[in-house]
Amino acid sequence: MHHNNIQLAVLDMAGTTVADGGLVLRAFEEAATAVGIESDGPRREAARRYVLDTMGQSKIEVFRALLGDEDAAQAGNRAFEAAYDALVGEADIAPIPGAVEAITALRDAGVRVALTTGFSRGTQDKLLSALGWAELADLTLAPSDAGRGRPYPDMVLTAALRLRVDAVDRIAVLGDTTSDIATGLAAGARIVAGTLTGAHSAAQLREAGATHVVDSVADFPALLLA
Q1: Is residue 181 domain-shared with residue 156, that is, in the same domain?
Q2: Are residues 50 and 83 in the same domain?
Q3: Looking at residue 149, what DSSP letter applies?
Q4: Which residues does 114 contact at the CB level (< 8 Å), separation at least 6?
Q5: Domain of 158, in residue numbers
Q6: pLDDT tens digits, 62-118
Q7: What is the pTM of this model?
Q8: 103 and 188 both lie in a single domain
Q9: What is the pLDDT of residues 105-130, one digit of tens each?
Q10: Domain for residue 195, yes or no?
Q11: Residue 140 and residue 53: Cα distance in Å, rounded?
Q12: Per the record's keyword annotation, is Hydrolase included, yes or no (predicted)?
């Protein structure tokens, strides 16, 4: 079956189209300390492991699960955002090699492109601005723009509605985490591809149900434009 009638590509940012030098984990470490998770010991280890496993999900949801208390979760999320925002200025934020070319090739071929994130809108805007990507995609979405973050289908479906896609099986999704894969599958996308430049391995992505696994975003357009 030809995949050349894909109308929308939904791509994750950090780990998929953007290399942020491990910033998420650094910001999480600062936030965990801020909300009183001891910096050493089993609780911190368990928290760190949970953050790696749930990478890509809406950050507020991660803090809710870790802290079990709404006020603490909100405080943790604010601390995370503040730490990430402060680190964005000094970190080596760069496009994953080939990302700009891939997005441009898709749009030139008539495929609409949306960039999604598990971060807040404010942090996503800082990231887009640091990269000079304000005009790169047709649409950028944070969880708050759609309803729920990953692993729910809301961001993919919101992109489909806003960009006037004819059917969900004309959507392709790309991400580096199992929650990106879960989101794409929940939304009914035809191609739900994993990429190996981020948090999770090929085995983890396949186990989550990825329809394809690519080495990087540079290889993604070939899947859609074949």
Answers
A1: yes
A2: yes
A3: -
A4: 8, 9, 10, 11, 137, 138, 139, 140, 141, 155, 159, 163
A5: 8-20+93-225
A6: 899 988 899 999 999 999 989 988 888 777 789 999 999 999 999 999 999 999 998
A7: 0.88
A8: yes
A9: 999 999 999 999 988 898 899 889 98
A10: yes
A11: 24
A12: yes
